[in-house]
Amino acid sequence: MQLLAVPSWSFGRDRSMLRKFREILSHDLVNLHYCESDVDQNRTVTAFSGEDDVVVDMVLRLAMACFDSIDLNKHVGVHPRIGALDVCPFVILHPVDQTGAAHLMNALAVAEDAANMLATTFDLPVFLYERSERGRHEADLPSLRRGGFGGLLERDLKPDFGPKFPHPRLGVTVLGVRDFLLAFNVNLETDEFELAKGLERAIRQLRLEGDPRFLGVRALGLSLPSRGLTQISLNLTLPDVTAPDPIIEWITEQAHSQSIQIEGVELVGAIRAADLPLAARIPVRRAQIIPS
User: Fold this and answer.
1) Tens digits of per-residue pLDDT, 196-251?
2) What number of CA atoms fall less than 13 Å from residue 236's CA on the CB side?
3) Which CA distances in Å does 143 have to 80, 130, 138, 230, 254?
4) pTM (2 decimals)?
5) Residue 277 Rama label (left phi>0; alpha psi -120 to 50; beta)
6) Span 139-165, pLDDT tens digits
7) Which residues does 145 contact at the CB level (< 8 Å), separation at least 6?
8) Torsion angle, CA of 213/214/215/217, rounded to 10 degrees?
9) How far is the C-alpha of 11 from the C-alpha of 51, rounded, in Å?
10) What fold does the segment set 182-290 form as a domain?
11) Angstrom distance (rounded) from CA 241 to CA 182
């Protein structure tokens, strides 16, 4: 079974580690779609696909490569995080010879095996989320991240795998099967952080009001001090019904109304070929495209 994994790691300032990640993922059995670090977020996002056993093996290899060098007690970055391997989603890439139901059952089993291996190998609490969640706790990532790493230290944890207390350096990991989502950033040519936070709040309100342009859209305003920019980080959780281009156009209009220009738009992770016609405003590398 073919899976796409999009694990995010809490390091972004160690270029040698980024090179090591790219070396590990330069494997004949792996399709590497994305492996990039951000200094201000202090975060590295990877996206790769292949047979499920290969994908899980790659996640474990990457964890072994970086976990000794990560200490969340000393970690500073603008992106929320609760773990060294902060989140590890698995997305089903459907072949033609099985039903969606059979795929889901297989993927859920693979994700639980991966969670168990991470918990056992690293003495790490692992929370299942999205389709993998068993009804024991919140299923969505924002809720599980609430309070950040510091908040974990004061909570009675109820992970699905591993100890009931956070790892003192590595925190916890959120892992599971989820539907495909589209992630991208819109960077603004201003260091006025409140502008980005205001756009974040406006998008949330429009989503709550049922504006069709923002159905399933999660937005996060971030400061990028090393570049003198601010950023709107966006996750489109319903990409089959919500297109990125109208969102980018709306952000552009809002920014221009305050005499702010758009510095650029960047795709994070992968994109399906079917999404490309309504994502013309996002620069895409060939390796990031997943055939539909």
Assistant:
1) 999 999 999 999 999 999 999 999 999 999 999 999 999 999 999 999 999 999 99
2) 27
3) 12, 11, 6, 24, 28
4) 0.94
5) alpha
6) 677 777 777 777 777 777 889 999 999
7) 80, 81, 82, 174
8) 140
9) 26
10) Alpha-Beta Plaits (3.30.70)
11) 12
248 residue type, one letter? I
Encoding tokens for residue 18?
């980024």
Q: Tell me the per-residue pLDDT of 113-127, one tens digit each, with 9 for 90 and over.
A: 999 999 999 999 999
Domain 2-177: which topology?
Answer: Formiminotransferase-cyclodeaminase; Chain B, domain 1 (3.30.990)
**What would the pLDDT profile of 66-119 be if each residue is shown by its tens digit?**
999 999 999 999 999 999 999 999 999 965 444 567 789 999 999 999 999 999
Residue 221: DSSP 8-state: E
3-state SS, residue 16:
helix
Lowest mean pLDDT among 3-17, 58-72, 79-93, 123-137: 123-137
Residue pair 176/209 in contact by the 8 Å Cβ criterion? no
Among candidates 187, 231, 175, 212, which has minimal Cα distance to 55?
175
- Cα–Cα distance between 106 and 23 in angstroms, integer? 29
CA of 244: how far to CAs of 131, 214, 241, 292, in Å?
24, 9, 10, 17
Q: What is the domain partition of the chain in residue ranges?
A: 2-177, 182-290
Task: With CA atoms as reference, report the closest residue to 177 among 115, 119, 132.
Answer: 132
Q: What pLDDT, on the 0 to 100 scale, is given for residue 149?
A: 77
